[in-house]
Amino acid sequence: RAKLDGRGSLQLFQQTFHDELVRQHRLAERLERAIDKRELSLHYQPQVSAVSGRIENLEALLRWTPADGPPVSPAEFIPLAERSGLIHRLGDWVMEEACRQQAAWRAAGFTESRIDINLSGRQVSRADVLERFEACLARHGLGARDIGIELTENVLITADSRILEGLRRLYHRGVRIAIDDFGTGYSSLSYLKHFPVTAIKIDRTFVRDAPGQPEDRAIMEATVFIGHRLGLEVVAEGVENEEQLTLIREMHCDLVQGYYFFRPMPAFDIERLLVGLVTTSPGLSG
Ligand code: C2E
Ligand code: MG
Ligand code: MG
Ligand code: MG
């Protein structure tokens, strides 16, 4: 139909909207079977010291590769799992797998690197998630310093008292607790003083724009300053080039994470890195 009047485009919109709902519904159904079908895995992205280039920490990132199709991005399926409630089962799977892997690495003699897992909003809305996390650590013979967590500021400010109590308990045991995507939420800085956290991860959008935008640089500098004054570790995420890295080093960020150093990769490739078989990080030289 060539002539698309107001009604035509409304119908088109409704049709597209309907198709999208159907697609999401099918995706959710497939995701529900993904655990049993062993389609999930964890990739790990190293965070390196901005000064020495040494690998200090690994962020665990969930991957879904359906047997019958191309990989689906977590940016798509995590929000879907949040809406459907499946996030609790997925989250438990991530916890279990990260602990299993870390215990295996510890047993193999890799004693240095921590793993951080991501916890999202609805996951944390279930009050016993942190107790289950602690139980998971214990089950695998791991200590507080072996696995940390990342939460966004929006998750922190909406957390109920039982979760905050749980976070405080973990904090006092020495668990690393990082605020993810820092600077993108709608919270005030004063919340930093109320929440038991050990690290701030400056959002990728600031890092991306810093070389050309004085405002982004100013926000980053202020974040590093306040972070350090509060005794927090400061991580810059999404570092993709030399120019960004130079700025980040000048700002004295502690850790950097990004494609410029390493992409998220399967456990096997991480092992090769940890044993020193490969050192392909450009940021390491000089
Ligand atoms: P996030 O926690 O902020 O994770 C960082 C994301 O940035 C990852 O995307 C990572 O691959 C990507 N990234 C890292 N370095 C660079 C870079 O230099 N440039 C660019 N453009 N991107 C970079 P990914 O793996 O697609 O994950 C997206 C989001 O999905 C995560 O953002 C997190 O919010 C969520 N997610 C991933 N795994 C889990 C999980 O196990 N549980 C929960 N609850 N959420 C997860
Ligand atoms: Mg994260
Ligand atoms: Mg992040
Ligand atoms: Mg993010």
Give the secondary structure arrangement, pairings included.
Elements: H1 6-34, E1 40-49, E2 55-64, H2 74-84, H3 87-107, E3 114-118, H4 121-125, H5 129-139, E4 147-152, H6 153-158, H7 161-173, E5 177-182, H8 191-194, E6 199-202, H9 204-209, H10 214-229, E7 233-237, H11 242-250, E8 255-257, E9 265-266, H12 267-274
Parallel strand pairs: 2-3, 3-4, 4-5, 5-6, 6-7, 7-8
Antiparallel strand pairs: 1-2, 1-8, 1-9
Bound molecules: ligand C2E and magnesium ion (3 copies).
Organism: Halomonas cerina
Domain EAL: 24-278
Protein name: Diguanylate cyclase (GGDEF)-like protein/PAS domain S-box-containing protein
What does this structure look like?
The termini are far apart. The chain is globular and about 60 Å long. 49% of the residues lie in helices and 18% in strands. With 286 residues, the protein is α/β, with parallel strands linked by helices. The protein has twelve helices and nine strands. The longest helix has 29 residues, at 6-34. Helix 3 (87-107) packs parallel to helix 5. An eight-stranded mixed β-barrel has the order 1-2-3-4-5-6-7-8, surrounded by four helices. The model has no long low-confidence stretch (mean pLDDT 92). Bound molecules: ligand C2E and magnesium ion (MG) (3 copies). One magnesium ion is lined by residues 59, 118, 150, 180.
